[in-house]
Design brief:
Keywords: Acyltransferase, Cytoplasm, Transferase. The structure is a single chain. The chain has 8 helices and 17 strands. By secondary structure, the protein is α+β, with helices and mostly antiparallel strands. The chain folds into 2 domains: about 150 residues; about 200 residues, Aminopeptidase (3-Layer(aba) Sandwich). Helix 1 packs across helix 2 and helix 4 packs across helix 6. The protein is globular and about 65 Å long.
Length: about 425
């Protein structure tokens, strides 16, 4: 069975990757029966491929060619093997158990234990969601969230590692009471995992450590008589967000807009009649677009970013804090950390509902990772932009109301962190 991991949960494609990957992991997106009905004439040969992590470090991943729930990892001196046991040939909602088949002595160091557990979960939650026939379908029966359990083997054999993995947010335990001495039954949920930034877990394989962005301490200021927290600067250099999208076989990235690099392409997009109808920023003069971008880069409450497929720009987005934005005067129950985004797709070849679902869920993912206090993401498209509104609702947003901006009649759409299950692939 081919092996190349991992992305973020696979909804469409049978190929799973991480950012910067090189091949398929599961040919049919299911676990094979451990007892085949007949012996092959020749035993299948192990398959070795590369697994690329978000920091561009490559691991070697080996599968046995027969049982696709056994995987071996190797990166420099790090070697470990995992397996998944399940009550079905497919992933289940609550019954799957992850175990270490073998491990090495560096697991006595907490950072290595955290790294390996993170990789296990990164692998597992790329599998397709449990199929409908494995989910309770009795009317009104509870489902709960998708979760996976752990055996107390490998890093989970040492109490200090169990405590570190729980403290890092990777797992929970059934009994979380302060007086509880129980350290069995560790489990992780998909909705929880995708809310964790990967950088803190990658230190054992980091060539150059990226500065960890922590939530800014709360201090307040005023904008147009609106009291709100002092906002942090966006990441100035490099990609803010990178993910391999297996359904398209391309990388999706978001980066801060650059005056010299992006003025011309944004100018071309703004002069597309389809875009101009909603943005109204068309101009013959390139300097008008340059001034438009410069204003955005100088703003304290929003910043412009460029979306790229395989490093080819496809869209322009403005990520903003709702509280001090004009929307904050019209939306109800606006929290200090709620965010919004304006969207523009400029390249025709990158339009369509499937791509919209991927990049909008990725923008939401970016905003939830960027500040864990953000609980709601909002958009306010024009009411006659019915196609985009449908795409947003297909991606999990709900329409709260319509209202009148001075310049347009808008629909207010929201997606709450509590209802978000993870980015699409």
């Amino acid at each position: 069975m081919p092996s190349d991991i991992i992305t973020i949960h696979s909804r469409v494609s049978p190929d799973l990757h991480t950012p910067d990957p090189t091949g398929p992991l599961f040919e049919d997106n299911r676990f094979e029966d451990t007892e085949p009905q007949h012996e092959p004439e020749e035993p299948p040969q192990p398959i070795v491929e590369k697994l690329h992590l978000p920091n561009r470090i490559a691991l070697h991943v080996t599968t046995d060619g027969r049982d696709d729930c056994k995987v071996d990892f190797e990166c420099n001196h790090l070697r470990w093997g995992i397996e998944i046991s399940s009550s079905s040939t497919y992933p289940t909602l609550h019954d799957d158990v992850l175990s270490f088949r073998y491990y090495s002595n560096e697991d006595n160091q907490e950072e290595y234990a955290l790294f390996k557990v993170w990789v296990m979960l990164f692998w597992y939650f790329q599998l397709p969601a449990p199929p409908a026939e494995l989910i309770p379908n009795k009317q009104g029966s509870p489902r709960g969230s998708w979760q996976v359990h752990f055996n107390n083997t490998g890093p989970f054999f040492k109490l200090a590692n169990l405590q570190a993995v729980e403290a890092a947010g990777l797992v929970s335990f059934p009994d979380s009471g302060a007086a509880s001495g129980e350290w069995i039954g560790a489990y992780a949920t998909r909705v929880g995992f995708w809310q964790l930034p990967p950088e803190p877990f990658l230190s054992p394989v980091c060539a150059a450590k990226k500065p960890l962005r922590m939530p800014k301490p709360v201090e307040y200021t005023f904008t147009d008589r609106v009291r709100h927290p002092v906002r942090p600067r966006p990441q100035p250099n490099g990609d803010m967000y990178t993910r391999w999208i297996s359904s398209f076989g391309q990388f999706l990235t978001f980066r801060l807009a650059d005056l010299d690099e992006d003025t011309e392409v944004v100018h071309r997009w703004m002069n597309d009649p389809r875009v101009a109808m909603f943005w109204g920023e068309e101009a013959d003069d390139l300097e008008k677009t340059r001034s438009f971008l410069k204003k955005g880069l100088g703003s304290k409450h929003f910043f412009p970013i460029i979306g790229c497929w395989d490093d080819e720009p496809f869209g322009y987005f403005e990520v903003y804090w709702v509280k001090e934005d004009a929307l904050g005067r019209y939306a109800s129950d606006v929290d200090m950390w709620d965010r919004g985004v304006h969207c523009l797709v400029g390249e025709q070849k990158f339009r369509g509902p499937q791509r919209v679902g991927v990049w909008i869920s990725s923008l939401v993912h970016f905003m939830f990772l960027d500040d864990p206090r953000t609980q709601t993401v909002m958009l306010e498209p024009r009411v006659d932009n019915t196609k985009f509104i449908k795409y947003l609702m297909d991606a999990g947003f709900y329409k709260e109301k319509e209202f009148a901006f001075p310049h347009k009649q808008a629909a207010l759409l929201k997606l709450k962190r509590e209802a978000w299950e993870g980015p699409l692939c």
